[in-house]
Amino acid sequence: MKKENESGFTLLEIIIAMTVLSFLMAFLYTIVDDSTRTKNDVISEDQDFLQVQTALHRMNLDFSQIYSPLYHSVDHEFYEEYDSEEDVPIDELEQRQKTKYKGTPNFPLASIKGVPAPIILQEDKTHIQFFTTANRRRLANSKQSQFTWVDYSLESMGEKENKDETDLRQGLSQLVRRVINENVFADEFDWTKIKPQIILKNIKSIEYHFWHHKRKKFVDTLNSLEEFEQYTPRAVKIKILWVNKTNQDQETIRVFRPLFPYFDPVKDELRRNPPSGRPIESEEGEIIVSEEEGDFEDGEE
Fold first, then answer.
1. Nearest to residue 52, comparing CAs of 219, 275, 241?
2. Tens digits of residue pLDDT in 243-269
3. Whole-angstrom Cα distance, residue 44 to residue 42?
4. Which of 235, 243, 129 is CA-nearest to residue 179?
5. pLDDT over 70, % of the chain
6. Under 8 Å between Cβ of 114 and 76
Protein backbone atom coordinates (compact mmCIF):
# COMPACT_ATOMS: atom_id res chain seq x y z
CA MET A 1 0.00 0.00 0.00
CA LYS A 2 1.36 3.44 -1.04
CA LYS A 3 2.00 5.89 1.82
CA GLU A 4 0.60 9.46 1.34
CA ASN A 5 2.97 12.48 1.50
CA GLU A 6 2.21 14.24 4.81
CA SER A 7 4.04 17.60 4.29
CA GLY A 8 3.31 20.76 6.48
CA PHE A 9 4.84 23.71 8.42
CA THR A 10 7.46 22.96 10.91
CA LEU A 11 7.43 24.46 14.37
CA LEU A 12 10.29 26.79 13.45
CA GLU A 13 8.40 28.14 10.44
CA ILE A 14 5.33 28.82 12.54
CA ILE A 15 7.42 30.68 15.15
CA ILE A 16 9.06 32.80 12.43
CA ALA A 17 5.68 33.63 10.85
CA MET A 18 4.19 34.64 14.20
CA THR A 19 7.21 36.82 14.94
CA VAL A 20 6.93 38.65 11.59
CA LEU A 21 3.19 39.07 12.09
CA SER A 22 3.78 40.52 15.57
CA PHE A 23 6.20 43.12 14.18
CA LEU A 24 3.68 44.03 11.47
CA MET A 25 0.91 44.44 14.03
CA ALA A 26 3.12 46.58 16.28
CA PHE A 27 4.06 48.76 13.29
CA LEU A 28 0.42 49.19 12.27
CA TYR A 29 -0.59 50.00 15.85
CA THR A 30 2.12 52.68 16.05
CA ILE A 31 0.88 54.27 12.83
CA VAL A 32 -2.74 54.26 14.01
CA ASP A 33 -1.77 55.59 17.45
CA ASP A 34 0.31 58.39 15.94
CA SER A 35 -2.53 59.30 13.60
CA THR A 36 -4.97 59.40 16.51
CA ARG A 37 -2.63 61.56 18.57
CA THR A 38 -2.10 63.90 15.64
CA LYS A 39 -5.85 64.16 15.09
CA ASN A 40 -6.45 64.94 18.77
CA ASP A 41 -3.67 67.54 18.81
CA VAL A 42 -5.05 69.24 15.69
CA ILE A 43 -8.57 69.24 17.10
CA SER A 44 -7.29 70.65 20.40
CA GLU A 45 -5.33 73.39 18.62
CA ASP A 46 -8.35 74.19 16.45
CA GLN A 47 -10.56 74.43 19.53
CA ASP A 48 -8.10 76.79 21.22
CA PHE A 49 -7.85 78.89 18.07
CA LEU A 50 -11.62 78.95 17.64
CA GLN A 51 -12.18 80.05 21.25
CA VAL A 52 -9.67 82.88 20.92
CA GLN A 53 -11.06 84.03 17.57
CA THR A 54 -14.62 83.91 18.91
CA ALA A 55 -13.59 86.06 21.88
CA LEU A 56 -11.78 88.55 19.63
CA HIS A 57 -14.77 88.72 17.29
CA ARG A 58 -17.07 89.54 20.21
CA MET A 59 -14.66 92.23 21.41
CA ASN A 60 -14.32 93.66 17.93
CA LEU A 61 -18.10 94.11 17.67
CA ASP A 62 -18.10 96.04 20.94
CA PHE A 63 -14.98 98.17 20.40
CA SER A 64 -15.67 99.00 16.77
CA GLN A 65 -19.04 100.49 17.75
CA ILE A 66 -17.92 102.60 20.70
CA TYR A 67 -20.28 105.55 20.80
CA SER A 68 -19.65 109.18 21.68
CA PRO A 69 -21.08 112.38 20.15
CA LEU A 70 -17.63 113.92 20.69
CA TYR A 71 -16.33 111.99 17.69
CA HIS A 72 -17.95 114.65 15.53
CA SER A 73 -18.70 117.53 17.93
CA VAL A 74 -16.93 119.56 20.61
CA ASP A 75 -18.09 119.46 24.23
CA HIS A 76 -20.57 121.94 25.70
CA GLU A 77 -17.89 123.87 27.63
CA PHE A 78 -15.70 124.37 24.57
CA TYR A 79 -16.12 128.13 24.16
CA GLU A 80 -15.80 128.79 27.89
CA GLU A 81 -12.16 127.83 27.49
CA TYR A 82 -11.57 130.77 25.17
CA ASP A 83 -13.99 133.39 26.50
CA SER A 84 -13.52 135.23 29.78
CA GLU A 85 -16.65 136.30 31.65
CA GLU A 86 -15.78 139.96 31.02
CA ASP A 87 -15.97 139.40 27.26
CA VAL A 88 -19.31 137.59 27.33
CA PRO A 89 -22.51 139.67 27.31
CA ILE A 90 -24.57 139.40 30.50
CA ASP A 91 -27.58 137.93 28.69
CA GLU A 92 -25.45 135.25 27.05
CA LEU A 93 -23.64 134.53 30.33
CA GLU A 94 -26.97 134.03 32.14
CA GLN A 95 -28.20 131.81 29.35
CA ARG A 96 -25.06 129.69 29.60
CA GLN A 97 -25.59 129.24 33.33
CA LYS A 98 -29.21 128.18 32.81
CA THR A 99 -28.41 125.69 30.09
CA LYS A 100 -25.19 124.41 31.63
CA TYR A 101 -25.06 120.63 31.45
CA LYS A 102 -25.00 118.91 34.82
CA GLY A 103 -22.99 115.77 34.28
CA THR A 104 -23.43 112.35 35.85
CA PRO A 105 -20.78 109.73 36.69
CA ASN A 106 -21.58 107.88 33.47
CA PHE A 107 -22.10 110.96 31.28
CA PRO A 108 -19.83 113.70 32.66
CA LEU A 109 -19.83 115.75 29.43
CA ALA A 110 -22.21 116.68 26.64
CA SER A 111 -21.67 117.80 23.08
CA ILE A 112 -22.20 121.42 22.13
CA LYS A 113 -25.70 120.40 20.99
CA GLY A 114 -26.50 118.90 24.38
CA VAL A 115 -26.07 115.20 23.57
CA PRO A 116 -24.65 113.34 26.63
CA ALA A 117 -21.14 111.96 26.12
CA PRO A 118 -20.42 108.66 27.92
CA ILE A 119 -17.26 108.06 29.90
CA ILE A 120 -14.71 105.35 29.12
CA LEU A 121 -13.45 103.90 32.37
CA GLN A 122 -10.21 101.99 32.92
CA GLU A 123 -9.57 101.17 36.56
CA ASP A 124 -6.45 99.13 35.77
CA LYS A 125 -4.70 97.57 32.78
CA THR A 126 -6.93 94.48 32.84
CA HIS A 127 -10.28 96.26 32.98
CA ILE A 128 -12.24 98.54 30.66
CA GLN A 129 -15.81 99.84 30.58
CA PHE A 130 -17.45 101.77 27.75
CA PHE A 131 -20.66 102.66 25.91
CA THR A 132 -21.35 101.02 22.55
CA THR A 133 -24.07 100.59 19.94
CA ALA A 134 -23.43 96.84 19.57
CA ASN A 135 -26.55 95.70 21.43
CA ARG A 136 -29.05 93.47 19.60
CA ARG A 137 -32.48 92.95 21.13
CA ARG A 138 -33.38 89.31 21.64
CA LEU A 139 -37.02 89.95 22.47
CA ALA A 140 -39.38 92.10 20.45
CA ASN A 141 -40.79 95.20 22.15
CA SER A 142 -38.29 94.96 25.02
CA LYS A 143 -37.03 98.14 26.66
CA GLN A 144 -33.75 98.07 24.81
CA SER A 145 -32.09 99.83 21.92
CA GLN A 146 -28.77 99.43 20.17
CA PHE A 147 -27.06 101.23 23.08
CA THR A 148 -25.45 99.19 25.84
CA TRP A 149 -22.77 99.47 28.50
CA VAL A 150 -20.05 96.85 28.27
CA ASP A 151 -17.59 95.88 30.99
CA TYR A 152 -14.56 93.64 30.31
CA SER A 153 -12.57 92.40 33.28
CA LEU A 154 -10.19 89.62 34.26
CA GLU A 155 -11.28 87.29 37.05
CA SER A 156 -9.74 84.26 38.71
CA MET A 157 -11.03 80.95 37.36
CA GLY A 158 -11.27 79.49 40.88
CA GLU A 159 -11.18 75.87 42.02
CA LYS A 160 -14.38 74.83 40.20
CA GLU A 161 -13.01 75.62 36.76
CA ASN A 162 -9.55 74.25 37.55
CA LYS A 163 -10.53 70.98 39.25
CA ASP A 164 -9.91 68.90 36.11
CA GLU A 165 -6.79 70.76 35.03
CA THR A 166 -3.15 69.96 35.68
CA ASP A 167 -1.06 71.81 38.23
CA LEU A 168 0.59 73.75 35.42
CA ARG A 169 -2.70 75.51 34.68
CA GLN A 170 -3.59 76.49 38.22
CA GLY A 171 -3.89 80.18 39.04
CA LEU A 172 -5.01 81.29 35.56
CA SER A 173 -7.73 83.83 34.88
CA GLN A 174 -10.71 84.20 32.59
CA LEU A 175 -11.95 87.16 30.59
CA VAL A 176 -15.57 87.99 31.42
CA ARG A 177 -18.03 90.37 29.79
CA ARG A 178 -20.93 92.11 31.50
CA VAL A 179 -23.56 94.19 29.77
CA ILE A 180 -26.26 96.63 30.84
CA ASN A 181 -28.74 97.27 28.02
CA GLU A 182 -31.73 98.67 29.90
CA ASN A 183 -32.02 102.14 31.42
CA VAL A 184 -28.58 102.92 30.02
CA PHE A 185 -28.79 106.63 30.90
CA ALA A 186 -29.06 105.99 34.64
CA ASP A 187 -26.71 107.92 36.91
CA GLU A 188 -24.97 104.82 38.31
CA PHE A 189 -24.97 101.04 37.87
CA ASP A 190 -24.39 98.16 40.24
CA TRP A 191 -22.17 95.88 38.17
CA THR A 192 -21.94 93.31 40.96
CA LYS A 193 -25.52 92.25 40.22
CA ILE A 194 -24.83 91.63 36.52
CA LYS A 195 -24.20 88.00 35.57
CA PRO A 196 -20.83 87.66 33.82
CA GLN A 197 -20.40 85.98 30.46
CA ILE A 198 -17.13 84.04 30.13
CA ILE A 199 -15.38 85.07 26.92
CA LEU A 200 -12.04 83.29 27.21
CA LYS A 201 -10.38 81.03 29.80
CA ASN A 202 -6.79 80.15 30.77
CA ILE A 203 -5.45 83.70 30.53
CA LYS A 204 -2.18 84.76 32.14
CA SER A 205 -2.48 88.46 31.37
CA ILE A 206 -4.34 90.97 29.24
CA GLU A 207 -3.41 94.55 28.40
CA TYR A 208 -5.22 97.42 26.69
CA HIS A 209 -3.22 100.04 24.80
CA PHE A 210 -4.62 103.24 23.28
CA TRP A 211 -3.53 105.14 20.20
CA HIS A 212 -2.14 108.60 21.01
CA HIS A 213 -2.88 110.85 18.07
CA LYS A 214 -0.12 113.40 18.68
CA ARG A 215 2.62 110.95 19.67
CA LYS A 216 1.66 108.57 16.86
CA LYS A 217 2.02 105.49 19.07
CA PHE A 218 0.10 103.33 21.52
CA VAL A 219 0.20 104.27 25.20
CA ASP A 220 -0.33 101.97 28.17
CA THR A 221 -3.28 103.66 29.87
CA LEU A 222 -6.32 105.69 28.91
CA ASN A 223 -5.21 108.53 31.20
CA SER A 224 -2.07 108.95 29.07
CA LEU A 225 -4.22 110.35 26.25
CA GLU A 226 -5.25 113.96 25.85
CA GLU A 227 -8.43 114.73 27.79
CA PHE A 228 -10.57 114.94 24.65
CA GLU A 229 -9.12 111.67 23.29
CA GLN A 230 -10.10 109.84 26.47
CA TYR A 231 -13.72 110.09 25.29
CA THR A 232 -12.93 109.32 21.64
CA PRO A 233 -10.22 106.65 21.29
CA ARG A 234 -9.07 106.13 17.72
CA ALA A 235 -7.70 102.62 18.20
CA VAL A 236 -7.40 100.09 21.01
CA LYS A 237 -4.76 97.37 20.96
CA ILE A 238 -5.43 94.18 22.93
CA LYS A 239 -2.56 91.96 24.03
CA ILE A 240 -3.57 88.58 25.51
CA LEU A 241 -1.18 85.99 26.96
CA TRP A 242 -3.00 82.66 27.32
CA VAL A 243 -2.23 78.95 27.79
CA ASN A 244 -3.38 76.32 25.31
CA LYS A 245 -4.37 72.73 26.12
CA THR A 246 -0.79 71.53 25.77
CA ASN A 247 0.29 74.04 28.46
CA GLN A 248 2.15 76.27 26.01
CA ASP A 249 2.03 80.05 26.31
CA GLN A 250 0.42 81.83 23.37
CA GLU A 251 0.32 85.58 22.72
CA THR A 252 -2.41 87.16 20.66
CA ILE A 253 -2.40 90.84 19.63
CA ARG A 254 -5.30 92.54 17.90
CA VAL A 255 -6.09 96.19 17.11
CA PHE A 256 -9.71 97.39 17.19
CA ARG A 257 -10.76 100.64 15.53
CA PRO A 258 -14.05 102.47 16.07
CA LEU A 259 -16.13 102.78 12.93
CA PHE A 260 -16.47 106.56 13.28
CA PRO A 261 -14.55 108.31 10.48
CA TYR A 262 -11.83 110.66 11.64
CA PHE A 263 -12.90 114.25 12.22
CA ASP A 264 -11.21 117.16 13.94
CA PRO A 265 -14.22 118.57 15.86
CA VAL A 266 -12.20 121.48 17.25
CA LYS A 267 -11.12 122.59 13.80
CA ASP A 268 -14.60 122.19 12.34
CA GLU A 269 -16.32 124.09 15.16
CA LEU A 270 -13.84 126.99 15.12
CA ARG A 271 -14.24 127.38 11.39
CA ARG A 272 -18.00 127.69 11.88
CA ASN A 273 -17.94 129.97 14.95
CA PRO A 274 -14.48 131.48 15.50
CA PRO A 275 -14.00 133.22 18.90
CA SER A 276 -11.83 136.29 19.25
CA GLY A 277 -9.03 137.14 21.59
CA ARG A 278 -6.17 134.73 20.86
CA PRO A 279 -4.98 132.20 18.28
CA ILE A 280 -6.52 128.74 18.36
CA GLU A 281 -4.78 125.49 17.50
CA SER A 282 -6.28 122.26 16.19
CA GLU A 283 -5.37 118.81 17.50
CA GLU A 284 -2.43 118.71 15.06
CA GLY A 285 -1.14 122.07 16.30
CA GLU A 286 -2.31 123.92 13.17
CA ILE A 287 -3.31 127.56 13.67
CA ILE A 288 -6.99 127.68 12.76
CA VAL A 289 -7.96 131.17 13.93
CA SER A 290 -5.48 134.02 14.18
CA GLU A 291 -5.53 136.81 16.78
CA GLU A 292 -7.80 138.83 14.53
CA GLU A 293 -11.35 137.53 14.74
CA GLY A 294 -12.33 135.42 11.76
CA ASP A 295 -8.90 135.63 10.12
CA PHE A 296 -8.43 132.03 8.97
CA GLU A 297 -5.03 130.74 8.10
CA ASP A 298 -5.98 129.86 4.54
CA GLY A 299 -7.85 133.12 4.01
CA GLU A 300 -11.32 131.54 3.99
CA GLU A 301 -14.26 133.24 5.60
1. 241
2. 988 888 999 999 999 988 777 787 777
3. 5
4. 129
5. 74
6. yes
